[in-house]
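Dear H.,

Thanks for agreeing to be a second pair of eyes. The structure we're designing against is below in C-alpha coordinate form, covering all 127 positions.
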Protein backbone atom coordinates (compact mmCIF):
# COMPACT_ATOMS: atom_id res chain seq x y z
CA UNK A 1 0.00 0.00 0.00
CA UNK A 2 1.47 3.40 -0.96
CA UNK A 3 2.43 5.79 1.81
CA UNK A 4 0.80 8.67 -0.08
CA UNK A 5 -2.67 9.44 -1.31
CA UNK A 6 -3.07 8.69 -5.02
CA UNK A 7 -4.80 11.49 -6.90
CA UNK A 8 -6.95 9.97 -9.66
CA UNK A 9 -6.79 11.19 -13.25
CA UNK A 10 -8.93 11.05 -16.37
CA UNK A 11 -7.68 8.07 -18.39
CA UNK A 12 -8.11 9.76 -21.76
CA UNK A 13 -5.14 11.97 -20.78
CA UNK A 14 -2.68 9.07 -20.94
CA UNK A 15 -2.21 9.28 -24.73
CA UNK A 16 -1.86 13.06 -24.62
CA UNK A 17 0.76 12.72 -21.86
CA UNK A 18 2.71 10.19 -23.98
CA UNK A 19 2.63 12.61 -26.92
CA UNK A 20 3.86 15.47 -24.70
CA UNK A 21 6.74 13.29 -23.46
CA UNK A 22 7.83 12.76 -27.07
CA UNK A 23 7.67 16.49 -27.85
CA UNK A 24 9.08 18.13 -24.73
CA UNK A 25 10.35 21.68 -25.07
CA UNK A 26 14.05 22.44 -24.83
CA UNK A 27 13.56 23.79 -21.30
CA UNK A 28 11.57 20.73 -20.20
CA UNK A 29 14.27 18.42 -21.61
CA UNK A 30 16.96 20.42 -19.85
CA UNK A 31 15.25 20.14 -16.46
CA UNK A 32 14.32 16.49 -17.00
CA UNK A 33 18.00 15.61 -17.50
CA UNK A 34 18.69 17.07 -14.04
CA UNK A 35 15.81 15.48 -12.07
CA UNK A 36 15.22 12.08 -13.70
CA UNK A 37 16.37 8.83 -12.10
CA UNK A 38 16.14 10.28 -8.59
CA UNK A 39 19.11 12.60 -9.15
CA UNK A 40 17.59 15.27 -6.92
CA UNK A 41 17.86 14.08 -3.30
CA UNK A 42 16.66 10.60 -4.31
CA UNK A 43 13.20 12.00 -5.17
CA UNK A 44 11.26 10.32 -7.98
CA UNK A 45 9.71 12.63 -10.59
CA UNK A 46 7.43 11.71 -13.47
CA UNK A 47 7.22 13.86 -16.58
CA UNK A 48 4.00 14.92 -18.26
CA UNK A 49 1.93 13.36 -15.52
CA UNK A 50 -1.89 13.25 -15.63
CA UNK A 51 -3.44 14.47 -12.38
CA UNK A 52 -7.19 14.89 -12.04
CA UNK A 53 -8.22 16.42 -15.39
CA UNK A 54 -4.86 18.04 -16.19
CA UNK A 55 -1.32 17.15 -17.17
CA UNK A 56 1.56 18.73 -15.27
CA UNK A 57 5.09 18.98 -16.65
CA UNK A 58 6.77 17.16 -13.75
CA UNK A 59 5.29 15.55 -10.68
CA UNK A 60 6.58 13.91 -7.51
CA UNK A 61 3.77 11.86 -5.99
CA UNK A 62 5.68 11.39 -2.71
CA UNK A 63 5.72 15.16 -2.10
CA UNK A 64 2.62 16.11 -4.11
CA UNK A 65 4.89 18.51 -5.97
CA UNK A 66 4.16 19.70 -9.50
CA UNK A 67 6.80 21.63 -11.40
CA UNK A 68 5.65 23.70 -14.34
CA UNK A 69 7.84 25.25 -17.01
CA UNK A 70 6.05 28.21 -18.58
CA UNK A 71 6.97 29.17 -22.12
CA UNK A 72 5.85 32.14 -24.20
CA UNK A 73 2.35 30.67 -24.62
CA UNK A 74 1.79 31.34 -20.92
CA UNK A 75 2.36 35.09 -21.38
CA UNK A 76 -1.19 35.76 -22.60
CA UNK A 77 -3.88 36.81 -20.13
CA UNK A 78 -6.14 33.88 -21.10
CA UNK A 79 -3.31 31.43 -20.47
CA UNK A 80 -2.43 33.04 -17.14
CA UNK A 81 -6.06 32.87 -16.03
CA UNK A 82 -6.28 29.20 -17.05
CA UNK A 83 -2.97 28.40 -15.31
CA UNK A 84 -4.17 30.10 -12.12
CA UNK A 85 -7.52 28.24 -12.21
CA UNK A 86 -5.84 24.90 -12.94
CA UNK A 87 -3.25 25.42 -10.20
CA UNK A 88 -5.88 26.42 -7.65
CA UNK A 89 -7.96 23.35 -8.46
CA UNK A 90 -4.96 21.03 -8.06
CA UNK A 91 -3.82 22.81 -4.88
CA UNK A 92 -7.25 22.01 -3.41
CA UNK A 93 -6.30 18.34 -3.91
CA UNK A 94 -3.08 18.89 -1.96
CA UNK A 95 -0.67 19.48 -4.86
CA UNK A 96 2.12 22.02 -4.34
CA UNK A 97 3.50 24.01 -7.27
CA UNK A 98 6.82 25.40 -8.34
CA UNK A 99 6.81 27.46 -11.54
CA UNK A 100 9.73 28.51 -13.68
CA UNK A 101 9.93 30.18 -17.07
CA UNK A 102 11.67 28.66 -20.08
CA UNK A 103 14.28 31.40 -19.76
CA UNK A 104 14.99 30.62 -16.11
CA UNK A 105 15.58 26.97 -16.95
CA UNK A 106 17.64 27.58 -20.07
CA UNK A 107 19.79 30.38 -18.65
CA UNK A 108 20.09 29.25 -15.02
CA UNK A 109 19.46 25.51 -14.73
CA UNK A 110 21.67 25.27 -11.65
CA UNK A 111 19.64 27.98 -9.90
CA UNK A 112 16.38 26.23 -10.81
CA UNK A 113 17.78 22.90 -9.60
CA UNK A 114 18.84 24.51 -6.31
CA UNK A 115 15.40 26.11 -5.87
CA UNK A 116 13.72 22.72 -6.31
CA UNK A 117 16.26 21.06 -4.03
CA UNK A 118 15.65 23.73 -1.34
CA UNK A 119 11.88 23.27 -1.61
CA UNK A 120 12.25 19.51 -1.24
CA UNK A 121 14.54 19.83 1.81
CA UNK A 122 12.17 22.31 3.49
CA UNK A 123 8.97 20.37 2.69
CA UNK A 124 9.96 16.72 2.60
CA UNK A 125 8.12 15.87 5.84
CA UNK A 126 4.92 17.88 5.35
CA UNK A 127 2.89 15.12 3.66
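And this is the sequence the design step returned. I haven't edited it by hand at all.
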Amino acid sequence: MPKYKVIPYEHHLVEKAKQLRRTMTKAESCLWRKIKNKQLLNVDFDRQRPINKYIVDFYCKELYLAIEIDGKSHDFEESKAYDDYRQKELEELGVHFLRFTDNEVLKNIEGVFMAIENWVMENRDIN
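Two observations from my side: The first strand starts at residue 46 and ends at 51. Strands lie at 46-51, 54-60, 65-70, 96-101.

Warmly,
E.
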